[in-house]
Amino acid sequence: MKLQVALDTLTLEDCLTLLEETKGSVDIAEVGTPFIIEEGMRPVREFKKHFPDIEVLADAKIMDAGELEAETAFKAGADIVTVLGASNDETILGAVKAAKKYHGKIMIDMIAVKNLEERTKEIDAMGVDYICVHTAFDVQSSGKDPLDELKIVNRVIQHAQSAVAGGVKLSTIDAIVEEGAGIIVVGGAICNAQARAEAAKEMKRHLR
Ligand SMILES: O=C(CO)[C@H](O)[C@H](O)COP(=O)(O)O
């Protein structure tokens, strides 16, 4: 199980400090979607330069032009790139093609996918590496629990590993660990903590 820290709203400088502080706890540094909108691929390059031992995920949430956009992120040094599960199959397959070329990985973000079971089966057969259930920022306050979706994905996947994102915190991580996931993504619960290094360490301690 890997711990991925989602870096969405911090400055580049603060992210580099956070990654230094949390060394040994964080397996994957995510350049979050808002960060990409702000800075493009610069954080991907900088994270790779300063922390060559940490995997870097570009949360590009690709929806079209899969091969082209994934290639841009892989060329910048990303190890993993996200593509939306709601995209056309051609987009996902294009991104998988780029991943093969650059020896990278594709994570499919199932955010807002309605036919989760059926779509997971289809996507699992496309050669992607991770299928991530994701409670969107915009619906987290509704109290939506990602566990039900994670159970569906874990039940149907045969090739990919599962991942979970969206509002994960210390009080919810044990149930996720119990259910099982290849990657657990934590953003605010680490980035907004008073003691970020301790928060990341504690999260990591709960993983298997
Ligand atoms: O991709 C995202 C939003 O679309 C976030 O990076 C993801 O939800 C993790 O952050 P948090 O733990 O703060 O919800």
Structure overview:
The protein has helices at 12-21, 33-39, 42-50, 66-76, 89-102, 116-124, 146-156, 170-179, 188-191, 196-206; strands at 2-7, 28-31, 55-62, 80-84, 105-109, 130-134, 161-165, 183-186. The protein is an alpha/beta fold and 208 residues long. It has a single domain (2-206), classed as Aldolase class I (TIM Barrel, Alpha-Beta Barrel), CATH 3.20.20.70. The protein has an 8-stranded parallel barrel, surrounded by 8 helices. Helix 4 (66-76) packs parallel to helix 5. The longest helix has 14 residues, at 89-102. The chain is globular and about 40 Å long. The model has no long low-confidence stretch (mean pLDDT 97). The structure holds ribulose-5-phosphate (5RP). Ribulose-5-phosphate (5RP) is lined by residues 6, 8, 32-33, 59, 136-137, 165-168, 185-189. Ribulose-5-phosphate binds next to strand 8 and helix 9.
Main sheet? 8 strands, parallel, barrel
Give start-end ranges of low-pLDDT stretches. none
> How much helical structure, as a percent, in the residues?
40-55%
Total discrete domains? 1
Order of strands side by side in the largest beta sheet?
A: 1-2-3-4-5-6-7-8
Radius of gyration: 16 Å
CATH class: Alpha Beta
Report the mean per-residue pLDDT as an integer: 97
State the end-to-end distance: 6 Å
Q: Structural class given helices, strands, pairing?
A: alpha/beta
Assembly of the depicted chains:
single chain
Number of helices: 10
Strand content: 15-25%
Apparent shape: globular
